[in-house]
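Hi support team,

I submitted a single chain yesterday and got back a structure, but I'm not sure I'm reading the token output correctly. Could someone confirm the output below corresponds to the sequence I sent? I've pasted both exactly as they appear in my results page.

Thanks,
R.
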Amino acid sequence: MAHDDAADLDTLGDEIAELSAHLDAATAHVLTLIREFEARAGWNTGFRSCAAWLSWRVGLDLGAARERVRVARALGTLPLLADALARGELSYAKVRALTRVATPETEARLLVVGREGTAAHVERIVRGWRKVDRVAEAREAKQRHTSRALHVYQDEDGMVIVRGRLEPEVGAVFMQALAAARETLYQRARAEAASALADPIADPPSMAQQQADALALLAQSALHQEFDPGAPGERYQVVVHVDAAVLADPDQPGQSVLEDGVSVSGETSRRLACDATRVVMRHDEAGRLLEVGARTRTISPALRRALHHRDRGCRFPGCGMRFAEGHHVRHWSALARRATFPVGAR
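Hi R., thanks for writing in. Yes, this is the structure output for that exact sequence:
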């Protein structure tokens, strides 16, 4: 009886998968019709756009209708993705995500990602994928940099309110620093509770309170250390995933993304690579990990001390900062094949 139930469930599952593939194939046909309908201006009968007509005629939400039109347009120049959707090999959800970044040059590579990964995996890859448009990328990076802000002011009751907006890589450093400070405070509290024979988890502070205490510890530590960044800790790090091609040439397509999926420019990754622990990971075309290399550091602690002894601060003309970070005079990625790297503090 149990065997029969399992067989019935397998049959039911197969039918669901088969019908889903048919729905995706039908969606591909609908998108082809939408593309032709828009090209022939069939919607121009009093409607503002093809999406507005589609929303009225088919009953879609306007946002969903706009997305259908966008995907339909994109598939007109992406025959591999269009064919995979028409055959039911890729779901509409995957194709919708891939068309945000795919170009005729990168379509084949992204098609492999779509076939091998789940919809969630494809979405994560797409969030970090860079289009080869350095002008647009530079414009976006400039907008992010321009919009950075930190507001600190005192409330009526004397409490200080902090509101800010940070660039992705700076925000990642800030959040990791807060995490490290929270852990330090937690360990201190445990040690104090143990010495007092008290319950270490009695009346614990909320996460918001822990964040406030951690920020206070960061400020005190910065003043105590005279703002010397020192060497980064190993446990609390900002991780950036960047394709080798992008690191060597920002004009190449590929990923340049923080650990949480937020995209950063290729130039930002090249700058961060000048002074960072690097782990080289080799993947196959489907994105499966094949090999993990040994960890290396482009500027070692010994070299960092030598730089500080030699330069006594930033070497940039007119800067005068006493404490600085080591960077290559030229990007490390442009010199990676050389045995030695010219470096300087800044």
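A quick pointer for reading it: Residues 335-346 have pLDDT under 50 and may be disordered. Let us know if anything else looks off.

Best,
Support desk
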